[in-house]
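>> received
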Amino acid sequence: MDLRFISLSEIDLDDRSFEIRKLGSPLRLRESLANFGILDPPWLREKGKGLIVVDGFKRLVWAKDSGAPGTVCRVFSEKCSGRDLWTRRIEKRLFEPGIDIAEKAQIVSILLELFESEELPAPVLASLNVTNRPDFLRRWASLSEKGDGVLELLSLGTIAERAALEVADWDERSTNKILTILGLLKCSASIQVEMIERINELALRDGKDRSDVMEVPPIGEILVSKELNHRQKTQALRNLLSELRFPRLTSRQKRFGLEVQSLGLPPQIRIIPPPAFEGKNWKMELSFTATEELRGVLVSADSAAMSGLLDAIMSPRLRETKDKQS
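>> returned
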């Protein structure tokens, strides 16, 4: 490996054999280059009578656009194997900040091409926090094969890794759609996975493509609403997906809320039904700040229990009759 000044005319900037696509905003890099120039020499490899880029694509394009005649580069001999160069390139990237999901997926895919499964470098996988399991590695590789639109969404930092891996086997259109939605909502990893599971379940139940599930008008209305912030949109979409997935349960929950309201209970009393209204273990939760308040809460609870309205709410026979009528 030599460190020397190279004329830009000697470099084939169109050869992207060693590229790890960085699709996020290059604003900070451009600002650094404008202020300080190229501080980290790009890596080149001899190829025939010319040179190709191993690392530093954006820096070299900036130099060309700036009218520079050339720059100092590290030049590797053509005898240096592609596997060795890729290994060095990846190790260098691991010591740099800000590896996003799109880059991680590309690196895992490259490793799978370079190494047999039993040869995969454990320190590299550990640095990437990637489990050396065939199914997980395959999902990462699948993500890297998506189009630039998907990789760009993954590079924004709003998509959780768990969610990204859940959609790795989706078709590109559906993947693009769900990542766009999740990027807009900026919700937590667990909620992202919950929404993905609901969409999967709806697609399987109705025999539809996942993208078709996400393109129903009510979802679009939530996403474009100007009255709702992103948290409210998230909750509205969660509610809608649950209602679409479990219409009878959602109907029962709404009716239960109205029935409890009819009891006229104070806010210190909560009636909690069994999960999915299945089973006999109902609960009543009381909250109070003083014994006098507790006495009043107990009177209200006793009144509700004696009125007979609570019996009607809890009665399995009455619930089944109402469910059939609805």
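>> The chain is about 55% helix and 10% strand.
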